[in-house]
Design goal:
The chain is an alpha/beta fold. The chain has a domain at 32-150 and 174-179: Roll (Restriction endonuclease-like alpha-beta roll fold), CATH 3.10.640.10. 25% of the residues lie in helices and 40% in strands. It has a six-stranded mixed sheet. Helix 1 crosses helix 4 (136-143).
Length: 181
């Protein structure tokens, strides 16, 4: 018998002064049996940082043809493809061919740095790719916010990000690894 996904509910309030985006979202996240709470929360952070009415979660780590999150236009074209973790270089290049913009939110400390070292040269040709590292202390602090029913806020101003619930505030300092045109 297959292990089923664990369902999480999140009420997320996004106040992104840099993009002039202010919106509340009621989200349902399915945690794959092999997915950690840390990865689940990085997916939620990626949603908050790219929040848009059309942004949607993909089917996740159990599929090769969908990202963790994506934003499609009205014709079905993919405007934004978001991966979380350390995806295969070939998968990223394929995504760069399918989407207007691709973002990778990498985490896990030293293994994230090693992943970037291994893939940086091959990915520098991808002009529509941005790679961000979430420092391991930050990703672990964000994981501490994980509950089956969450009420979270994400506040962005002048590039500074705060991700919080009613008791804990986590300052997120993303490290830009790859910024393409």
């Amino acid at each position: 018998m297959a292990v089923k996904a664990t369902i999480f509910k999140a009420e997320l309030q996004v106040s992104d002064m840099d993009r002039n985006h202010y919106q509340a979202y009621s989200l349902t996240l399915a945690q794959h049996p092999s997915e950690t709470e840390e990865r689940l929360m990085i997916r939620l952070l990626a949603f908050a940082l790219n929040a848009d009415e059309g942004l949607a979660f993909g089917r996740g780590i159990s599929t090769d043809d969908e990202p963790d999150l994506w934003l499609k236009d009205l014709t079905g074209q993919v405007d934004l493809w978001i991966e979380v973790g350390q995806p295969d270089e070939q998968r990223i290049r394929k995504a760069c061919g399918r989407a207007g913009k691709v973002r990778v939110y990498n985490f896990s400390g030293r293994s994230a740095a090693l992943w970037w070292e291994k893939n940086a040269q091959a990915l520098e040709r991808c002009r529509n790719l941005e790679v961000f590292d979430v420092p391991s202390d930050t990703s672990q602090a964000i994981a501490a916010l994980c509950k089956r029913n969450m009420s979270l806020q994400c506040f962005v101003q002048d590039g500074e990000v705060q991700f919080m619930d009613d008791a804990i505030t986590v300052t997120v300092n993303l490290v830009a690894r790859g910024r393409s045109g």
